[in-house]
């Protein structure tokens, strides 16, 4: 039988990982790309929609370049987090995102996406970080872009 201290340590780790992922979503939407990159281990493996990124910085910079100042909304739901060792954990998150762009010739299509993150986490110098991230989208619905000049 597990003792109370072990249970408390595990619950504390799970809450810390939930906060880590909440910051991930918030930093994407607040356009805090330097802070976003810092949520990952330096050698993190990131794969989104079949694209493998070379580094957390490349991943964050691509988000910056793709979305610019366009408003976005990213949500993570129903986390399934398992502590697999003193400094390791796994997680699965349901996700939903909305992204639209100012209307124009070169504007990409907006979308409302649904999918799932499968991740691993590693505790480095007392801080939980994302070590691997795999984003798979199950559905993408097109959204109309908006006219920034419309009243």
Q: Report low-confidence residues grouped into runs of 5 or more.
A: none
The mean pLDDT is: 93
**Structural class determined from secondary elements:** alpha+beta
State the end-to-end CA separation.
Answer: 64 Å
The major beta sheet can be summarized as: 6 strands, mixed
Strand content: over 45%
The gyration radius over C-alpha positions equals 17 Å
Shape: elongated
Task: Please give the count of helices.
Answer: 3
Instruction: Going across the biggest sheet, name each strand in turn.
Output: 2-1-6-5-4-3
* Share of helical residues: 25-40%
Strand segment count: 6
Order of helices and strands: HHEEHEEEE
Structure in words:
- The chain is of the alpha+beta class.
- It is 28% helix and 46% strand.
- The chain contains three helices and six strands.
- It has helices at 4-29, 33-37, 56-67, and strands at 40-48, 51-53, 72-85, 88-99, 110-124, 127-143.
- Strands 2-1-6-5-4-3 form a six-stranded mixed β-sheet.
- The chain is elongated.
- It starts with a helix and ends in an 8-residue tail after the last strand.
- The mean pLDDT is 93.
